[in-house]
Amino acid sequence: MFKKINSLFVTMFGIGKLPKIPGSYASLFTVIFLYLLFNIFSFRADIFLFFLVLVFFISLFSINLFVKDLTNKDPKEVVIDEFIGQSIPIILFEIFHGDRNYSAYDALQIYLWFFLLFRVFDGLKPFPIDYVDKKFKNSFGILFDDILAGVYVVLCLILFMVGKTYLLQ
Questions:
Q1: Mean pLDDT of 28-37
Q2: For the packed helices 80-96 and 22-35, what is the interaxial angle rounded to 10 degrees?
Q3: How distant, in Å, are the alpha carbons of 83, 85, 107 from that of 98?
């Protein structure tokens, strides 16, 4: 029973078992879920941040348990890492833009940019993402490469905002 629940957790309720591009589906699900959570239901970002940290620590344990008997230590079915990595730019955006000086449509556009950028960085794996992906064949490596992809999206957002502020005045 516990093994089945753990499998549901790490595969995001079966999204990871989809035959093609499960990571992209998991990222898209995350974007839609967070859009609804923050922009339709007005959920507080600081509370979600606590939840996200909790999911991270549970994932460290759960992924190790899931891959324990597998030969492939980074199976495509494990997509909880996509949820965590994709959530990082969205949660930071919501925390720092909690005043809601943007419309739901603007938020949707921003979230979609986050999705596209995250998928690009997760797919291309620029340094140090590629290093983490190749060097750490455990739950830390599975999680941390997606966390770094999320951080790269945040850096793109910062560069865009700085550029917009100083170059487009």
A1: 96
A2: 30
A3: 21, 20, 11
